[in-house]
Amino acid sequence: MDKLNNVLKANDIFNIHIFGLNIPISDSIIVMWIISVFLIIFAFVITRNLKTIPEGKQNFAEVLVEFINNFIKDNIGHHWRSFAPYLGTIFLFLIVANIISIFSIIPTGEELYKITGLEFFEHWPEFAIQPPTKDINVTATMGLMTVLLVLGSSIRFKNVFGWLKGLAKPSPIMIPFNILDYGTRFLSLSLRLFGNILAAFIVMELIYGLISPVVPAFLSLYFDLFDGILQAYIFVFLSSVYIAEAVE
Amino acid sequence: MPIGGLVAIGAGIAVFTGIGAGIGIGYAASKAAEGVSRQPEASGKITTITLVASALAEATAIYGFVIALILTGKIG
Fold this sequence. Notes:
The complex is a heterodimer of chains A (248) and B (76). Chain A is built from 8 helices and 2 strands. Chain A is mainly α and 248 residues long. A two-stranded antiparallel sheet of chain A has the order 1-2. Chain A starts with a helix and ends with a helix. By secondary structure, chain B is mostly helical. In chain B, 83% of the residues lie in helices and 0% in strands. Chain B is built from 3 helices and no strands. The longest helix of chain B has 30 residues, at 43-72. Chain B is rod-shaped and about 60 Å long. Classes of the chains: A mainly alpha (248), B mainly alpha (76). Chains A and B meet through helix 1, helix 7 and helix 8 of A and helix 3 of B.
């Protein structure tokens, strides 16, 4: 029970004091910083000295960009170019964020204390690389970003009157439901991602506790890799479907 | 009367949403198998659609899971 509560609540590592505000920095924020730095470096390395005839790492970059572009083009239609960079970024970020628990090789303070016996490690902040998407604050932000993007692009491409007209689309009785739709989309997007990743995380923790050697490695393939990539794909797919509905 | 036990039972009942998700995913998978056996050349597209549909059907189970999590937080 206590362990479950520990999984659910944000684990604050340190606080930042700025302008008289006290901002707690939780471990999911630190993991997201790590992911951002990794993705930025990855993007710089992979796109350095591009050539007309691709070779080596440029092949990989082109396949990746082309896959994302085709995916967005299939779903959104002729406005795809405005949305492909954002959705591609979200896709890459979510993939890395969901599967990052397979890179959790940093030992916790307690383990270091047991191995080395040094007093210093006993008060080490408890930091482990866990998927940040198992924190509901992260996924709620993701869902909010998508809903704001849907709202903004709807107003941008159809202007305010077109958007208001779209709210009363099938008949004026539907206006409250269409407004409610934004709230339910936000809830379903964020809760789907949160619930899937948290469920996979809890199941993997139980398995690690139950049977230690060999077996978790194979189950991790499904729960960490497959489920994580599938959920990132689903999130981007649903976002693009909502956007397509908003701009048409 | 202690309320904790009832809350725990409620959390258990919330996870019954898994039944709906199971039926939905099973139905999607059976139809996908049917589709592939009729038209093997469309298997790539069918696989994608099946995966997406399964994940959508799974959402109901996830809602039940989230409700159960919220309820377990309330057990004294």
